[in-house]
Amino acid sequence: MSPTLFLMQCLNGLQLGVLLFLMAAGLTLVFGIMNFVNLAHGSLYMMGAFIAATVYNHSGSFALAAVAIVPAMLIIGLIVEFVALKTLYDRDHLDQVLATFGLILFFNELARMIWGPSPYYMEVPEWLSGTIDLFGLPYPAYRFLIIVVGLAVALGCYLLIHRTRIGMLIRAGATHRQMVGALGVNIVLLNSLLFGLGAILAGIAGLMAGPILSVQPGMGEPILILTMVVIVIGGIGSVRGAFLAALIVGVVDTVGRTLLPTLLRSLLERSTADTAGPALASMLIYLVMAAVLAVRPQGLFPVKHG
Coiled coil: which residue ranges (predicted)? Predict the structure, then answer.
């Protein structure tokens, strides 16, 4: 692999990583603080992509789609939390898994009813359709925007959690949930705000992924699996862990899919390498997860509960 190709794949891995972080940040807080298993988080990502594509295709303004996605996903998240999930907080995880799996089916059918079963395309904005010079390498401007937005959101999450009163309550809820409730903090409202924040982040991920992926029913399930891997590696409830793990998973997955088949061709017959390479490459992130858990069973940055 040439240095240019390797750098390109690293940038693509960084781009995938920040998308995964947008998904993982909200979900890991819901896991860590609310102790709630939400399999429907990928469906919120899908709805964000569809809503953004609809606004963009009807208005022609990507900026308007970006502005609209925040209140739209906040409303959807709060409605889902109030109508379907609030009564499940004290139930066991199996009930939560079954209920949120039902939400996956509901949202997929809702998307088919509204937008149809065929892919709903969202073009890259014309002003972002070119390339920029990055380390002497022409790189797609829109993919670079995804990296910038993801890093900006990561910084915003850090400031929110570590520099605001709401963030203090979030961190306290992750480590001393019962004590926070005993001190008079409205846990119900905190849960709603957390779920709404997670929905917004998932919607932003859908907005950014729309122009480079096919927007279609069921698109949330594949990225949900990767998001779960990120959360396990980073440590449940840790936004810092989610950020680092997302970058690791993004780079390992992207670079591995290019590098591993090439490496195998130098060691095995070409036909064997072409068959085994993609299969082994798809396993890399799970091998990384297994290695991390073997050394740190709670993840890279586990939240210590008190």
Answer: none
Overall pTM > 0.85:
yes
- Residue keyed to tokens 């709805």: 47
Nearest to 24 by CA among 302, 237, 277, 167: 237
- Each of the 306 residues of the chain gets a pLDDT tens digit; together they read 677 778 888 899 999 999 999 999 888 888 877 778 899 999 999 999 999 999 999 998 999 999 999 999 999 999 999 988 888 888 888 899 999 999 999 999 999 999 998 888 888 888 888 888 887 788 899 999 999 999 999 999 888 888 888 777 777 766 666 676 676 777 778 888 889 999 999 999 999 999 998 899 999 999 999 999 999 999 888 888 999 999 999 999 888 888 887 777 777 777 777 777 777 878 889 999 999 999 998 888 887 655
